[in-house]
Design brief:
The complex is a heterodimer of chains A (about 300) and B (about 250). With about 300 residues, chain A is α/β, with parallel strands linked by helices. Chain A has two domains: about 220 residues, Rossmann fold (3-Layer(aba) Sandwich), CATH 3.40.50; about 60 residues, Alpha-Beta Plaits (2-Layer Sandwich), CATH 3.30.70. In chain A, about 35% of the residues lie in helices and about 30% in strands. Chain A contains eleven helices and 14 strands. In chain A, the strands form three sheets. Chain A has a six-stranded mixed β-sheet with strand order 6-7-8-3-9-10, with helices on both faces. In chain A, about 40% of the residues are buried. By secondary structure, chain B is an all-alpha fold. Chain B is built from ten helices and two strands. The longest helix of chain B has about 30 residues. Chain B has a two-stranded antiparallel sheet with strand order 1-2. The chains are: A alpha/beta (about 300), B mainly alpha (about 250).
Chain lengths: ~300, ~250
């Protein structure tokens, strides 16, 4: 299947800081692609390059075969963009925001009016179309931004952290809209939320420090990390001094504690017996293999340190 | 061609239409106060300037000042607001419009605001005062005003593009725009300047605006040197505004 999005050895530097380093990627048409990474990983930089808002320091990117460097206008004709922050025009009504977008895409009223009716209906905003966005809740504003990005029927939709700051109901409502777009266009999504990526994306890439760390479907990524041998262990009684003992065992890779429950990453299956034979083995009440979540995969790859 | 510019201009005019009454009240108050204070207050001391009654001498400058101030205000604040607060410039930039469309749209808007507000001040002065003109002089005056509004729109666009802190736009107005306007002979004849600095004052674009506008409105023609100054300044400012915008957006 031909690629909707291609990144070819993209590098973006700001002085001595390299935000993205020789990053390459191909996203097939019709895919919901999720780019995951902590703050500062380079996700937004990549979206800005792909939407022609920023020029790469080297390399080139292509959307539906058009270069962002040589054919920016053609690229912008084919893309819809939902930025991280709502950039609605607060002096225009919801409908006028969509009309302006249609006009900027060279659409005629006969083309944009029915499309806008359809989108307002789809996003549940038809009844509020003559109100100003300032009077909308965060979720409604976000839905309006999504509707605006779809007015000209783009072939590739870029969503940069689309549900950040929304309540769970609004998030799920927005997920529904994104699910409806599946197979009608290519969706390129960045997010911090693992459940969002798990629920929406056909393919997920985890990146950090401007580089790709893992790539595959949610199931593939979790499978790959199920070999990480993470176990949840419950101890009898007071487990106060156990942490130090566990951290001292050569076959224990990491220890996380939550009350009397410990989460241990072991070097392999053969480490189970020495664990049971160790000084704390007699105090184990329950031990079970922990199936990794996408978040475990993410943390394992990008670390636990909080980013600025 | 320029489809994007007209779409952006159309948006700005729709927003202006919604607040036209409050906009006009605020814009009329300032020049009208100056006209009444200077035109009538000083009439007893300055009966005429070069044979022109003093209220008639200052009226064209006040109308032009309203227009260019409105052009500068609209372009600078609008560009700043759309870039820094609403971030709608980013929305425009992910559509097929070009940087030229965005800058030209904002310049059109500044010019339109200047033209509308200048016209209203002109009409108010016409109704409330004995100020009268020969309407056959209007085309030359409007040409002068169009070029001046374009220059100030471009200057405003540049300020709104470069300046990130809003208070600095206010500072540019107080330190650059207002002195340039007041030095250009709205309230007094240029011959009041010492001969040594007069040639420099005559080269100011604002002198070309206000002296040119006065000559156009009172005598029906813009002196060629002033006209050349206006055309050249508007052209240079336009190129600089587009260059500045492109450069800023590439950051």
């Amino acid at each position: 299947m031909p690629s909707a999005v291609t990144l070819n050895q993209i590098t973006k530097s700001y002085g001595s800081f390299t935000a993205v380093d020789r990053f390459s990627l191909e996203v097939e048409r019709g895919t919901v692609f999720g780019l995951l990474g902590p703050n500062g990983a380079g996700k937004t930089t990549l979206i800005k390059i792909l939407t022609t808002l920023m020029r790469p320091s080297s390399g080139d990117a292509f959307v539906e075969g058009f270069s962002v460097l040589a054919a920016g206008k053609e690229v912008r004709r084919l893309i819809g963009v939902v930025p991280q922050e709502n950039n609605l025009d607060r002096y225009l009504t919801a409908r006028e925001n969509l009309i302006l977008h249609g006009r900027l895409h060279g659409m005629k009223p006969a083309d944009y009016n029915p499309r806008i009716d359809e989108l307002l209906e789809m996003t549940g905003l038809a009844g509020r179309q003559h109100d100003f966005p300032d009077t909308f809740s965060g979720g409604m504003q976000r839905r309006l931004v999504v509707a605006r990005a779809l007015v000209h029927e783009p072939r590739v939709l870029f969503l940069d952290e689309p549900t950040t700051g929304l309540d769970p109901q609004s998030r799920r409502a927005l997920w529904e809209h994104i699910r409806r777009l599946r197979h009608t266009m290519t969706v390129f999504l960045t997010t911090h939320y693992m459940d969002e990526a798990d629920a929406l994306c056909d393919r997920i890439m985890i990146m950090d420090h401007g580089e790709s760390l893992a790539d595959g479907s949610a199931v593939q990524l979790k499978d790959a990390f199920s070999r990480a041998h993470t176990y949840e262990v419950d101890f009898r009684g007071d487990a106060g001094g156990f942490r130090e003992i566990l951290e001292g065992l050569s076959f224990v890779r990491s220890v996380e504690q939550d009350g009397t429950t410990f989460r241990l990453t072991l070097s392999g299956e053969d480490a189970l017996k020495p664990l049971l034979d160790s000084a704390v083995g007699g105090q184990i009440r329950k031990i079970c293999l922990k199936e990794p979540s996408l978040e475990d995969v993410f943390i394992a790859l990008t670390g636990e340190k909080v980013r600025e | 061609m320029l489809r994007g510019a007209f779409s952006i201009w159309g948006r700005d005019m729709l927003v202006l239409r919604r607040s036209i009454i409050s906009e006009l009240i605020s814009v009329i108050a300032y020049p009208l106060t100056l006209y009444l204070a200077f035109g009538f207050g000083l009439k007893g001391y300055i009966s005429d300037v070069g044979g022109i009654p003093y209220p008639l001498f200052i009226a064209p400058g006040l109308i032009s000042m309203t227009a260019v101030n409105a052009a500068f205000d609209e372009s600078s604040w609008s560009m700043w607001f759309h870039r820094r607060v609403q971030r709608t410039i980013e929305e425009y930039r992910v559509t097929p419009v070009t940087a030229y469309d965005i800058v030209i749209g904002k310049i059109f808007s500044g010019f339109s605001q200047g033209a509308i507000k200048g016209t209203v001040v002109f009409l108010v002065i016409l109704v409330l005062t004995p100020f009268r003109i020969d309407f056959s002089h209007l085309p030359a005056y409007l040409l002068c005003l169009a070029l001046a509004s374009m220059t100030f729109s471009c200057l405003g666009t540049m300020c709104g593009t470069i300046i990130d802190k809003p208070e600095n736009i206010g500072r540019v107005q107080s330190v650059v725009i207002v002195p340039l306007i007041f030095m250009a002979g709205i309230f007094f004849p240029l011959t009041s300047y010492p001969a040594s600095i007069l040639p420099a004052v005559r080269l100011l674009p604002t002198t070309a605006v206000f002296e040119g506008a006065r000559d156009a409105l009172l005598f029906g023609a813009v002196p060629p040197l002033y006209l050349a100054n206006l055309v050249l300044t508007a052209g240079i400012c336009f190129v600089l505004a587009v260059y500045t915008f492109n450069r800023k957006m590439a950051e």
